[in-house]
Design brief:
alpha+beta, about 20% helix, two-stranded antiparallel sheet, 6 strands, about 90 residues
Length: about 90
């Protein structure tokens, strides 16, 4: 194979891999209390941003994070906040 073609293929593969690694990721899940009850009104924020959502009446949420390495900060009045790494997951229950 010609060296120039090989270099172009390698460069293209690197671009493809890096763009998929940093693409936006949709995450959804349910936030529940310690006894299993849904927590409506819990806040989920992408750490270091102002991007956030609030859980619905069933404790469910949907959020788009900047990349698969993002961290979610989940908080609810009267409870300790939790930081959860997305790690490429599309479903995270708390």
């Amino acid at each position: 194979m010609d060296r120039k073609i090989f270099q172009m293929l390698l460069f293209g593969m690197c671009l493809l891999f890096s763009s998929s690694m940093y693409a936006q990721v949709k995450v959804s899940g349910v936030v529940k209390g310690s006894s299993g009850e849904a927590l409506p009104g819990a806040t989920i924020v992408v750490k270091g941003t102002t991007n956030g959502v609030v859980t619905n009446a069933d404790g469910q949420y949907n959020i788009t994070v900047p990349n698969a390495q993002s961290t979610l900060v989940v908080s609810f009045i009267g409870m300790e906040s939790q930081q959860i790494a997305v790690n490429g997951k599309s479903s995270i229950n708390v």
